[in-house]
Amino acid sequence: MSDVSSPFVCHGDQRKIDSGRSTSGLEKCLYSAPSPTSRALVALQLLQAHPGITAAKLAEHLETSERAARRYVEMLREAGIAVRSQRGRYGGYTLDRGSRLPPLVFTPPEALALVMAILDGHHNTSEPDQPVGAALGKLLRALPTSVAAQADAVRRVTTVARDRAAVRPDPERVATLVDASEQHRSVRVDYRSEASNTWSVNCEPWAVVVRHGRWYLLCRTHPAGAVRTYRIDRINDIELLDTTFDPPDHLDPVAMLETHLAAGWEHPTEVIIDAPLAQVEPWISPVLGALEAIDSETTRLSGTTSNPTWYAEQLTALPAPFRIIADEALHNAITALAHRLYAATATNLGERQEMTARPNHSDVARR
Q: Do the beta carbons of residue 91 and residue 84 sit within 8 Å?
């Protein structure tokens, strides 16, 4: 067996315990000296890796008696680490949520994966005055050098291109909604749409979903009973209510979010596309609405939007003829966009100004 300099780092060859069973992973971690402190730290590692571990199994891994294993658990409790015990045949020890965070144990691949996940989220990890950078710095400083080295190198040399579409909401509001969802407790939210319209609504917070860098609340509103999706960065205030709810059985938050992204906004939209449904489906994002076949050659797109100009811009990418059926605001947005695109074909400034001010609709149609 190889010596180790820290109970947090695994070294040495695989070993066998009294039962003859080979150990692996965290169970390979041995302490350099069988002191009570080092045994207690190894016990903590085992509790983190094996929630519900019994005193007998804990003693087996520590190569000590069950009475001694229970004493090491008590040492952890005295140090402020909340360890919950459950009696009975299937009872055991589990780390509970206490007032103090217990020491965390990471392998080098885990620490590296954590940094990469944060970078994938387009966070700047090098700014110590920002919550993400400060938290990651604390974590890396607490890890042994052999574990933190690769992760810290990736953190220092990697530059993240900012995702302009990503919007990060207030962490406290996210935490409030997550807690309410876990407790099945209704909330009242004050919301501001993209068009700066504001309203308050009572709802059941079913889930918090992150989609393409944006955080959404998936909920059912009251008293209407409608499923809605609200961007959390546009929620101005949250009030916890006393009423509780039962979430839907077998809820798939991501699938339901995709289905309802285009529901409940200020401007209804209806677009007829001159192409069959199977051909149109790959062109249309769920955020634009729902598709249905009118006949074998025509498809209807129905939804709502808070931003007709943005919606019109998305429609211009369709590689098939289409026409607007509903909503004057979308009609106006399409017309304004057509004028702007038409003006872009002018050969000089005077012609562009004239075309923008008084567009010839027959010319627009021909182009």
A: no
Q: For residue 345, which of 362, 363, 323 has the smallest C-alpha distance?
A: 363
- Torsion sign over Cα 60, 62, 63, 64: negative
Q: What sign results for the dihedral spanned by CA atoms 288, 290, 293, 294?
A: negative
User: E-strand spans in 166-234?
Assistant: 185-192, 198-211, 214-222, 227-231
Phi-psi sector, 212: left (phi>0), alpha (psi -120 to 50), beta: left
| Residue pair 306/267 in contact by the 8 Å Cβ criterion | yes
Query: 64: which 2 tokens?
Result: 């000590």
- The span from the CA of 69 to the CA of 227, in Å, is 51
- Output Rg (C-alpha) for the chain, integer angstroms: 29
Q: Which residue has the tokens 């400060």?
A: 134
Give the Cα separation of 65 and 201 in Å (integer): 59
Say yes or no to pLDDT of 58 above 50.
yes
Tell me the whole-structure pTM to 2 decimals: 0.57
Q: Classify each residue of 326-348 as buried b or exposed e, where b means 16 or more C-beta atoms within 10 Å of its C-beta.
A: ebebbeebbeebbbeebbeeeee
Rounded Cα distance, 283 and 145, in Å: 50
Tens of pLDDT along 92-142?
898 876 545 556 667 777 777 777 667 666 566 666 666 777 777 777 776
Q: What is the Cα–Cα distance from 164 to 32, expressed in whole angstroms?
A: 50
Residue with token string 């144990």? 105
- Specify the pLDDT at position 104: 64
pLDDT, tens only, 297-349:
999 999 999 889 999 999 999 999 999 987 789 999 999 999 888 888 776 66
Angle at 35 between CA 65 and CA 144, to 5 degrees: 120
Distance between CA atoms of 131 and 150, rounded to whole angstroms? 22
Amino acid identity, position 184: H
279/320 Cα distance (integer angstroms): 10
Classify 97 as helix, strand or coil. Answer: coil
Residue position matching structure tokens 């992760």? 151
pLDDT at position 153: 77
pLDDT for 20 equals: 38
Contact 177, 208 (CB under 8 A): yes
Give percent above pLDDT 90 in the chain: 37
